[in-house]
Write a structure and sequence with these properties.
Elements lengths: L1 H19 L35 H26 L2 H23 L16 H16 L1 H25 L3 H25 L1
Helix pairs in contact: 1-3, 1-6, 2-3, 2-4, 2-5, 3-6, 4-5, 5-6
């Protein structure tokens, strides 16, 4: 009985977070939910991106680290360039991670995130972080392009996961993350127009 009460509380917590957590972006370059679009020709894709893992535990751990990657990259760009779009979207990436935490906990999956900015347990995510920070440190335009690349990768990974998951709680969280990533993509692309 205790296990089912804990699971129910976790699912309820996810539903409440999903209903109340804002993943919108305010300020210059913000907008509503963007329709799914093909990859932008303005984005520079990182050189080597490995496919995301396939089993549920590994996928959810990958997704939370991917959200941390977005946060940490945008934090670095905010420090470097001082442009509001990075701080706004960085704050939203915290919300994205907070949506995943109870989902991992309800499934007994360990949270792989490091408390150190720019440090990741997944070597592919670590390489991607390093590449994106290097790219976005070259110029503000390249930082926007790195933002586009991050959000396009998030959208692709979340869309693939939504096609394979059958769990209602997981689906609700992934749909919320996808909507936020579409908003972020639109915001970054508007900076490149």
């Amino acid at each position: 009985m205790r296990r089912s009460a804990t699971t129910y509380a976790s699912v309820l917590g996810i539903a409440l977070l999903t209903a109340t957590a804002g993943c919108s972006v305010t300020g210059p370059g913000s907008g509503g939910t963007a329709p799914a679009e093909p990859p932008s020709p303005t984005a520079s894709a990182p050189a080597s991106v490995s496919p995301a893992p396939t089993d549920e535990a590994a996928r959810l751990q990958y997704l939370i680290e991917e959200e941390k990657l977005a946060h940490d990259v945008y934090q670095r760009f905010d420090e470097l360039w001082g442009v509001r779009i990075f701080s706004n979207i960085m704050a939203s990436e915290v919300t994205h991670q907070q949506l995943l935490v109870p989902l991992l906990a309800s499934k007994g999956i360990a949270d792989p995130r490091s408390s150190t900015a720019g440090e990741f347990s997944d070597p592919d995510i670590q390489r991607l972080y390093d590449q994106l920070v290097q790219q976005g440190s070259a110029s503000l335009t390249e930082a926007y392009k790195a933002g586009v690349a991050i959000e396009q990768k998030d959208i692709a990974d979340l869309s693939a996961d939504l096609k394979t998951t059958t769990d209602a709680a997981t689906t609700a969280v992934l749909q919320r993350l996808l909507a936020g990533s579409r908003n972020h993509l639109q915001a970054f692309e508007s900076q490149l127009d």
